[in-house]
What does this fold into?
Amino acid sequence: MKITIIRAECSKYGQDGVLYINNNPVCDTCEHPKRKLPAGEYDLKLALNRKLRRSVPTLSNGSIITMGNGPFLLNNDIIVGKRVLRGVLLQTSEVFNKLIDRLDKAQNVGKTFTLTIK
It folds into this structure.
């Protein structure tokens, strides 16, 4: 399964972007403006996160895609939700849960994931 994040706008409030699955927009993303991941391709898998006590999309370098209220507590992680302002996402839990359900179903039928950040 091909997952792509296309970064759009970077400000002091965060690096905003859009997450696509198989070229279809799924949700908005936000990263810390200075501690964002380098653009490139990453292997992605669902792995148990001890802090969150659940499976989360985990990149090959240990960074995760997660829910959150803003980018400033992030350390090379990506939050998902619906963008309302620069660096501000709402409905992060709902969007995250839908994303996890979709990835979990795909993984259960043997699909693998690749994340490309542009």
The two ends are 17 Å apart (CA to CA). Strands lie at 2-11, 14-21, 24-31, 40-49, 54-59, 65-66, 78-85, 88-90, 113-117.
